[in-house]
């Protein structure tokens, strides 16, 4: 949006645009993460990696790494196997209501991870509809929840690529006598491979960092790197161990992000055209069956969660929802919570609003910087470096970020631990990459000749923005704001360290309630999960009506 106003200023203009976002990330991201790592690798002020090395060679660490890789790989494989047929069905077949179905499939992806964990506990528990399978508390439950959470990523990312593939090569192969399977293997799959690998790498990343899902379903018995960092910092105060795992996670995730970014930038994408959907044929029956199974698999945990929230010791009713105005039951007649769930919901909404405007202001600046046209080699190099720098929050555990903010911003001018803005800042940083990746493709796609034409007709810089850029970006801006709001509502990893006892968010409250004994507390957790899921779903469905294509990468 701002490239017309700054393109003539060259490298100094690029630097001027980047000053604010770089400063914000330096203070609220680089400093906390570096401080967290420093406390583990420089425990006495001198570099001493022996403690970190010792952690990496522990038997438990090996089990944690294996469980993280195994569940993430299984979750990725399951998401791809189920997501590819659904992507074809919902993006290439002319089905009635397919846009609504695509919107509904997106809801699980933005549900708070704690809510997903609670839903699967209710589904697979002893009294749940699938309790007879004996999967509660097993790795299978974790993988099933990861697939539920991430199948929408494959559907949207691969579906968007499939929808825009040029159909003529496949038609030519079929005309030359190739069977449908040969067309798929020799023509369609090679063209889709970048999108599939990119979606798979992103899904693997989301599986490996699904903090709330694993913490809720796996407990302490089955831990990933993400939950192990949480355990080491909160229960054991083992900063050296947490630093070692954080550094390892940073390196692996950064590599995955680099791979996904490289594949997203493949030249093949530029040669795609919009393909028309075709009518349903009898041969599409297996794909329709898989799509129906996936829809059933998405709906069942949510329906079980809603049903559980309405179940009370006296039968069916709204007792659990009425109890949200209380603090639950604790030992000795005390409450399980410091504040009622209804108050926590107000805190969550207020925090989400603050996190959204922060993420939008910062994300819009970043999107302008990374899409700005470079005139020279130096400017291109600086812009590429800034692009990677701004994506760093995706490569660091939210748990590491939260704990880093807690232990770093605690003295002098940066004593912000008691500030009510600390949680929104952390949540804004978590949402920042999503905002940038929603806005950047749209800004990059604006033809600069339109701006030049407006300027030649006498329009000033701001008038040019109003008549050229704004009509294109207003829907993506609203979509990015909606996704940032939804991410903030469900964020749990960083918030679990930074929240104040008198102002917890709903995900924190839910996790506390399921950890307290008592049927009433668990019922309240189910009801709170339904309320949070409902608010998140409404936001996402409203965003989906904007039909923004740039979010397909997620």
From TrEMBL:
Keywords: Cell inner membrane, Cell membrane, Membrane, Transmembrane, Transmembrane helix, Transport
Keyword Cell membrane included in the entry's annotation: yes
Domain spans labelled ABC transmembrane type-1: 65-258, 345-543
Annotated TM spans: 12-34, 64-88, 100-120, 140-159, 202-223, 243-264, 285-310, 355-372, 384-409, 421-444, 522-543
Topology within the bilayer: Multi-pass membrane protein
Family membership noted in the UniProt record: Belongs to the binding-protein-dependent transport system permease family.
Protein name: Iron ABC transporter permease
Organism: Nocardioides lentus
